[in-house]
Specification:
Number of strands: 26
CATH class of the largest domain: Mainly Beta
Number of helices: 0
Largest sheet: 5 strands, mixed
Number of domains: 3
Structural class: mainly beta
Shape: elongated
Strand order of the largest sheet: 1-3-8-5-6
CATH architecture of the largest domain: Sandwich
CATH topology of the largest domain: Jelly Rolls
Strand content: over 45%
Distance between the termini: 72 Å
Helix content: under 10%
């Protein structure tokens, strides 16, 4: 009784007579209730066109369909959802064309006010989305099949301004990358109607999560996702509210990495002016050689953020498998005893997608003027935190 009702689904039925028996749960129990029998509300989802789902009858389900192509990436987004009785979840089950047996869905979400799910379509054909409210509640919601292209995000172009209007409304972006390309996606100027953060999910072309999920906090001035040394294909980013009634406003920026070659003992000005932009610097080295990677006069916007400099050897450039790293706020250095000959990578990644300016030097250690048993060498640094 406390749930306000219940329902039975007769899903994708074969022809024939079905029966429902309602039995007291006690020897002296009497019952009084209303019974409804409803056909499923049906609608076709068109790409990037919001569709209003209205299940006005108790126990009524919705069946939404859309056409998809194998390998395509889309998102099913639900926003502004309300129910009667209030605060009930709705289960949205996505079925592929070749298998529509109940319980064999390829994805599912159960929002109270809004949510989204990334779909990497396994085959071509017509997909079903079954909307089934808990306890037979009546429901209204906005449902969108998003391609991730409607928000107008363009690589290396001006930031895209995003503002959601409905409770639980999400934002979805689709990004195309080629093998070996490095991309940075950033959120900045985040404003929330309530709460302090939102969540970001990034997906590879296979549909798997990249580095789990990330919280983007207003107090930190933004956040970013790195798509590092990827395989070719379509990547996607989903930004979801971290509260039932939360609405979001932010700028989204997509940038290719800045590239540069480090020459021995030649200071390199590093300028990452775009939010979320990374840098990929390279240098050639020989096995057994000793050099130092030096960073000086580093500044960030927002201020006082650390920047991560990851050094990768020629034979292993997998993210997280660097053989050395430094994370200065204004400047620092690290000694590198090179394990093999070839071209080394230095990935520069600022915390929270901050923009960065710094001077980076690959030092051979021979320019200081220090000579064994010779005169005293004089050194004076001109930049903050210069090693």
């Amino acid at each position: 009784m406390s749930q306000g009702g219940c329902d039975i689904d007769i899903y994708n039925a074969v022809a024939g007579s079905y029966s429902v028996l309602v039995v007291p749960n006690g020897t002296e129990q009497r019952m009084q209730f209303k019974a409804n029998l409803s056909s499923t509300a049906q609608a076709v989802l068109s790409a990037d066109v919001p569709s209003m789902l209205s299940l006005g009858r108790r126990g009524q389900d919705g069946l939404l369909t859309f056409n998809g192509t194998k390998g395509e990436t889309v998102a099913l987004q639900v926003a502004g959802q309300s129910s009667m009785p209030a605060k009930k979840y709705v289960r949205y089950e996505v079925y592929k064309p070749s298998d529509r047996r109940r319980g064999y869905q390829i994805e599912v979400i159960t929002p109270e006010t809004g949510g989204a799910v990334n779909l990497s379509l396994p085959e071509s054909g017509t997909y079903w989305v079954l909307a089934d409210p808990d306890y037979g509640a009546s429901v209204s919601a906005q449902v969108t099949l998003s391609t991730g292209s409607s928000l107008g995000l363009t690589q290396d172009a001006a930031p895209t301004v995003v503002e959601t209007a409905l409770p639980g409304q999400t934002a979805f972006f689709r990004l195309n990358a080629t093998a070996g390309q490095h991309l940075g996606f950033a959120i900045s100027d985040l404003v929330l109607s309530s709460g302090s953060d939102v969540r970001i999910y990034a997906y590879s072309p296979s549909g798997s999560l990249i580095n789990g999920d990330t919280y983007c906090n207003v107090a930190q001035g933004g956040c970013d996702i790195d798509i590092y040394n990827p395989v070719s294909g379509t990547y996607s980013v989903l930004i979801a509210p971290n509260g039932l009634e939360q609405a979001m406003q932010f700028k989204a920026t997509l940038s290719s990495s800045a590239t540069a070659t480090l020459a021995l003992d030649s200071p390199l000005p590093l300028q990452l002016t775009r939010r979320g932009q990374d840098a990929l610097m390279t240098f050639s080295g020989n096995k057994g050689e000793t050099v130092a990677l030096m960073v000086a006069a580093q500044s960030t916007l927002p201020a006082a953020n650390n920047v991560r400099y990851e050094v990768y050897k020629p034979s292993d450039r997998r993210r997280g498998y660097q053989f050395d790293v430094l994370t200065p706020q204004t400047g620092y250095s690290t000694n590198l005893s090179l394990p093999e000959s070839g071209t080394y990578w230095v990935l520069v990644d600022a915390d929270y997608g901050a923009s960065v300016a710094a001077q980076v030097t690959l030092s051979s250690g021979t320019k200081s003027g220090v000579i064994q048993d010779g005169n005293v060498a004089q050194f004076s640094s001109s930049l903050p935190a210069q090693p």
